[in-house]
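In the design runs reported in the main text, the only information available to the sequence generator was the tokenized backbone. The following block is the verbatim input for one such run; it is reproduced so that readers can re-run the procedure and compare outputs position by position.
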């Protein structure tokens, strides 16, 4: 998905976020498989790259792979030897993503874990794994549990990113019209109150929450 319908987003994308054949081809491939258009925009992809570069990310965890579009953007921002672990519960989607990672030459950089995000993060926590950044983009009702996991898995100075923070505008509705919106309101409220984080929401596409894990004084 691109934001190029908006002339200013189009301008930003032309300068900073041009898709190559792999990314454009992946969008076609996802459409061919009737995958929903719920992946990030190219403009967001570039923003993720800037943020990952700013914190010197080498190891990234993504919850919610779909066809691998955001994973490719992020993996391309990692230094040699970097690694991205991405989690998808639907095996057929994971397979589309694996194929795209091969076409992108990133099969040694990106590891796809098929399973429920909650199970995978619990496994990672039990192994005391550490990540420089985590991009949360799976089921919205799980965001609270994923934030708990992120606070354990992401190192001080690292990044916790949450997509769909604005719920297409419904985030300001009281009472929340759906369980997803309610979960996102609770997630955003926690980000605002959490003293271990410095957070904000950028109103790019459906909203991206950006949190830095504070370093100890
Ligand atoms: C919004 S899409 C991810 C888009 C992707 N990050 C991108 O921008 O290219 C969300 C994906 O998360 C997967 N998903 C939803 N709930 C999940 C869960 N509990 N565990 C693992 N994957 C989940 C869905 O099957 C879907 O493919």
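Verbatim output:
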């Amino acid at each position: 998905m691109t934001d190029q319908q908006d002339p200013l987003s189009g301008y930003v994308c032309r300068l900073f976020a041009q898709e190559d054949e792999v990314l454009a081809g992946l969008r076609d491939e996802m459409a061919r498989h009737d995958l929903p258009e719920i992946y990030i925009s190219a403009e967001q992809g570039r923003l993720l790259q800037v943020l990952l570069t700013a914190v010197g990310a080498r190891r990234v965890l993504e919850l919610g792979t779909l066809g691998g579009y955001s994973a490719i953007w992020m993996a391309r921002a990692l230094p040699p030897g970097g690694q991205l672990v991405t989690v998808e519960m639907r095996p057929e989607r994971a397979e589309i993503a694996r194929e795209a990672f091969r076409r992108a030459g990133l099969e040694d950089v990106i590891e796809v874990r098929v399973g429920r995000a909650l199970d995978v993060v619990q496994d990672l926590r039990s192994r005391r794994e550490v990540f420089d950044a985590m991009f949360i983009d799976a089921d919205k009702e799980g965001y609270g549990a994923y934030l708990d996991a992120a606070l354990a898995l992401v190192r001080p100075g690292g990044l916790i990113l949450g997509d769909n923070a604005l719920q297409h505008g419904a985030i300001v509705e009281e009472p929340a019209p759906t369980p997803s919106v309610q979960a996102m309101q609770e997630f955003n409220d926690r980000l605002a109150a959490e003293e271990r984080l410095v957070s904000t929401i950028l109103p790019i596409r459906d909203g991206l929450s950006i949190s830095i894990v504070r370093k100890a004084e």
